[in-house]
Amino acid sequence: MIQAAIISTGDELTTGRTTDTNAGFIADRLLGLGIDVVAVLTVGDRPERLRWAWSEALRLAEVVIATGGLGPTADDLTTETVAALLGRPLVHDAAVAERIRELFRLFNRPMPENNLKQAAFPEGAVIVPNPLGTAPGYRMEVGSAEDRRHLVVLPGVPREMKPMLTETVLPWLAELAGAARVGHRTFQTFGISESGLDEVIAGIPGEGRWSFRANFPEVSVRVVVRGDDVERRLEAFGREVYARLGQYIYGEGDTSMERVVGALLAARGVTVAFAESCTGGLVSHRLTNVPGSSAYYRGGVNAYANAVKEALLGVPSALLEAEGAVSEAVAGAMAEGARRALGSDLAVGVTGIAGPDGGTAEKPVGTVCFGLAAADRPTVTRRYQLWGNREWVKLLASQIALDWVRRHLLALPLLEIGPRGAGPAEAKRESVAPS
Amino acid sequence: MIQAAIISTGDELTTGRTTDTNAGFIADRLLGLGIDVVAVLTVGDRPERLRWAWSEALRLAEVVIATGGLGPTADDLTTETVAALLGRPLVHDAAVAERIRELFRLFNRPMPENNLKQAAFPEGAVIVPNPLGTAPGYRMEVGSAEDRRHLVVLPGVPREMKPMLTETVLPWLAELAGAARVGHRTFQTFGISESGLDEVIAGIPGEGRWSFRANFPEVSVRVVVRGDDVERRLEAFGREVYARLGQYIYGEGDTSMERVVGALLAARGVTVAFAESCTGGLVSHRLTNVPGSSAYYRGGVNAYANAVKEALLGVPSALLEAEGAVSEAVAGAMAEGARRALGSDLAVGVTGIAGPDGGTAEKPVGTVCFGLAAADRPTVTRRYQLWGNREWVKLLASQIALDWVRRHLLALPLLEIGPRGAGPAEAKRESVAPS
């Protein structure tokens, strides 16, 4: 198995101004090729620290991928450091220099002379094009055939780095790693805990490397397969996973609950509206993050005050008084009111206690009620006991609201949520999908 | 200046399942004490990799702070590795063991024997209590007086690690760093770019280390002061900063625009409502993230479809037709409609084109109009040209809506936004506050 080291460079990382998301992104993609990351080395913009990081990385691993330090200013030292460490001269690349000049012309700005620094590369470097910025990256091979090292240098800005990695670096690494014989699939789940998934997956026969990634309130499951017959084996794993976990898998690969729900609504020509109390607009916000959502999202009423529930959603004040604002009956009435007032095919109502205050013995913090109203069937309601702080309760409730739409459109059973089921022994992971 | 190295441990980090937010959090807090982070070393749960990380960290820096690898399972190797590296035996701590047993009783779960592993520490370790989990941390001093090393080991779960760092470790480090002579202030700004801030700050006399942190759509400015008279000098810097940047500073320290706006609304007894089109509920979502927001947030209407703008907000269809849904007139009518329908003192309307589709030559993607309606003055409206992808336009627009409320309550001038003003030369940073 090929081993890699990642170097993240920049004072903004070692001073905590910026969270390094590059290393994780790269590590995730390398894992997909069956490449193992032995270490991430993060250093600020100082020559001696960069030298330390590069010497150690080259000592530890066959592949080194570095981000940052390619800018035009004096504190951008990556290329100089690498060239010095490898004992290679810097070579000026005329084509890259011309592209930089052109970009400045395009932006109608004078080009500072030091920007041409970005057109100098260690001898032997192969350019990795940067479609979105002035600094291209590069890759190099060094060392003898028995002791080969592969270096990749990319800019630190994530939106420039990511396409460069995906479009140019990964295909090249895939070849290096013999990726014709490596493949993977990632299943996105909601409504089952990491340990619950672990148990189910453990029973699946066949050789694959399974891993879980909890990203509250979801858990994704990935299987990496190496060796012969990769495609066929991935297909067989997929069949098993769907047979055992079907209703919990909302999508595969790089997707999200809101995108899946949006695509389902669009495909079926169904419009939706939301009546939100405790989620305060989060359900609507998430669905409207999906480009093109105006095709199926009519709108929503965020009804915090009871008077708003009455005036805009027509929830009877007698019902609010008798059942309380956090009740299945009110959630149902909110859904029906939203469907009526906003003229949608489908509507979901959410009302609950996000905390930290407002809980009672009967309705503790985390109590959230849902209602779904549709033309073709009676309104469905349900009360769940959720957990976590205010933001988690909101997030989990918004996820349930979206999952209800998904399950309704796919005629799946209503989501079941048991107790959290994670004691202190499991506190190591921040995982918290409902079990 | 004291130098520190940070170690982040866990396979979840080197496989990209989890983004490491611990290292940045720690680095930020250390900077506040004037302690410089020379490197972050991230490794998976393998003995040889942990050994590498610890030996290098102890070689590089006087203070080493590590997170992760303190769990009860076989792949939690930090304590064993540290003890072996330092040549110290493991010592069982009876009080810690009892606390672990008690936690399991509390959760009503059987305790696996291997959890007692968390009660063993290298000889000489001083316990750092963990109020929120089973694994305490510890700190140690090693080496001779001339070559002293300070080690801190904390669990990897952020919500456990953070209070342990803040409550126990930082006060101890402050003493070590002579923090009586170090102090800092952090100003949160919105509406001015990082380079704009940089220019203004550069003119401020006095000795302090200034740094900027762009967290779209905001930029925070921090000044660290060392030496004599720390308090007085911080106060003087504060006076200068407010004199030059007053209206752009919405708060200081660990706060957010929504919390500041919420506190202002609560203090003045003013209620608010929102009518959101392109932000799709995000403004309401953000304000309802603030605990206690039900005291001043009445609710909101997310009016995506024009029919919803008409039916729930009373926007005249003739106006929609004449001016278009994205217009100052409609934004104003939305704000007035929300104020009327939701019965609030104050209301803000937002309508725009978040993209990627829907733009025209006259109203390109990023065109967003705002309106603010209040009892005591005529409705104010304004059109801005925003930038970025769909999520950025939404986020920036939601920030402007909240800032409008803040500026209204503080009788500040209307927010001015110029062109983005960042060409390729500045693309290195993801910074993007409006200039």
Mind explaining what this structure looks like?
The structure is a homodimer of 435-residue chains. Chain A is of the alpha/beta class and 435 residues long. Helices cover 37% and strands 24% of the residues of chain A. Chain A is built from 14 helices and 17 strands. Chain A has a six-stranded mixed sheet, with helices on both faces. In chain A, helix 3 crosses helix 4 and helix 9 packs parallel to helix 14. Chain A is elongated. In chain A, 51% of the residues are buried. The C terminus of chain A is likely disordered.
Features:
homodimer, 435 residues, alpha/beta, six-stranded mixed beta sheet, five-stranded mixed beta sheet, 14 helices, 17 strands, 24% strand, elongated, disordered C terminus
Task: Calculate the mean pLDDT score of chain A and round it.
Answer: 90
Please report the number of helical segments of chain A.
14
Helical coverage of chain A, percent range = 25-40%
Radius of gyration of chain A over all CA atoms, rounded: 26 Å
Structural class of chain A: alpha/beta
Q: Order of strands side by side in the largest beta sheet of chain A?
A: 2-1-3-8-7-6
For this structure, the quaternary state is homodimer
Biggest sheet overview of chain A: 6 strands, mixed
Can you count the beta strands of chain A? 17
Pair with the biggest interface: A-B, 106 and 106 residues
Secondary structure: elements and pairs:
Two copies of one chain form a homodimer.
Chain A (H helix, E strand, L loop, with lengths): L2 E7 L1 H4 L7 H11 L3 E8 L3 H14 L2 E5 L10 H9 L3 E3 L1 H13 L13 E3 L3 E3 L8 E6 L6 E6 L3 H19 L5 E8 L4 H9 L6 E7 L2 E9 L3 H16 L3 E4 L4 H12 L3 E5 L5 H6 L9 E7 L2 H8 L3 H7 L4 H15 L3 E7 L14 E8 L2 E9 L4 H20 L26
Parallel strand pairs in A: 1-2, 1-3, 3-8, 13-14, 13-15
Antiparallel strand pairs in A: 4-5, 6-7, 7-8, 9-11, 9-12, 10-11, 15-16, 16-17
Helix pairs in contact in A: 2-6, 3-4, 9-14
